[in-house]
Specification:
With 258 residues, the chain is α/β, with parallel strands linked by helices. The protein has helices at 18-31, 70-82, 99-104, 125-135, 169-176, 213-220, 236-251, and strands at 35-41, 44-51, 58-62, 90-94, 142-149, 156-160, 187-188, 191-192, 198-199, 225-231. The mean pLDDT is 96.
């Protein structure tokens, strides 16, 4: 595995046809028995998948909130294609939260808003529509937000776990390093790393003037979650494999819904 060295001042790696990827996810979701809901966000179409009734753990997954992180969409597409979820799992999946940014391969949406800093104030119609949709759903056992980082030296993750529940973070890092480099720096994404590749951010709402998606979900929908960050200066296959492996390890040890 060798770093490509393309990302100078931003993401300059491989691009994807995000609309085609989402169309493929819609076909796979239908094949696997998911219900689809399409929400209009001021003329922007947001697609959501749901499969319930299994009585098992309630899982939330999302991707595509930053349009310059294409491996996140491809990893979620691969997970949907495999349809290998825990027994009885109930699933809520957001395949592409920023369609205009993904089409342009830009972090922000077409209006220039970083949607993953907009979950406190709701300036963008996409975030307002997503929150309204989330408010209609039950609580989840676990949330997983798939991302990439063009500056990263390898895969890393954010763990949000205010109740000190058992987590899979260390197992994830060990499994991912078999298929993808891991960022082992003492400082990762501007934060001190608790363990190699593992970040545990402050969770006090007063300390966060701009809320990412995962922080809103923590406050409103679940007490355990991970933001998974692939290293986007590596080949696409490496990044996708790292994200998929991370999700697989986490899902292998999740608790049941109460």
């Amino acid at each position: 595995m060798q770093r490509l060295g393309r990302n100078q001042g931003g993401y300059h790696g491989d691009r994807i046809d995000s609309a085609a990827v989402v169309a493929g996810m819609r076909r796979d979701a239908a094949r696997c028995g998911f219900m689809e809901e399409v929400v209009d966000a001021d003329g922007i179409e947001l697609v959501f998948f749901k499969r319930v009734g299994g009585g098992g753990p309630r899982l939330y997954l999302s991707a595509g909130i930053h349009g310059d992180e294409p491996a996140a969409l491809l990893a979620l597409a691969e997970l949907l294609r495999r349809d290998a979820w825990p027994l009885g799992a109930e699933l809520w999946i957001c395949p592409c939260l920023n369609p205009t940014g993904c089409a342009r391969t830009t972090r922000e949406n077409a209006a220039g808003v970083d949607q993953n800093r907009d979950y406190l104030h709701g300036r963008s119609p996409e975030v307002r529509a997503h929150i309204a949709w989330l408010e209609r759903q039950p609580r989840f056992d676990l949330h997983l937000c798939l991302h990439e980082d063009w500056e990263s030296h390898g895969f890393y993750l954010y763990e949000v776990n205010p109740d000190g529940l058992p987590t899979a973070s260390e197992a994830v890092i060990e499994a991912v390093r078999e298929v993808c480099p891991v960022d082992t720096g003492a400082i990762v994404d501007g934060r001190e790393s608790a363990l190699p590749g593992i970040l545990r951010p402050p969770l006090d709402p007063a300390s966060r003037p701009e809320w990412p998606e995962a922080f809103w979900i923590l406050q409103n929908k679940t007490r355990l979650g991970y933001t998974l960050e692939g290293p986007s200066d590596w080949p696409m296959e490496v990044r996708v494999n790292g994200l998929v492996r991370a999700v697989e390890v986490i899902l292998a040890g999740i608790p049941r819904a109460s």
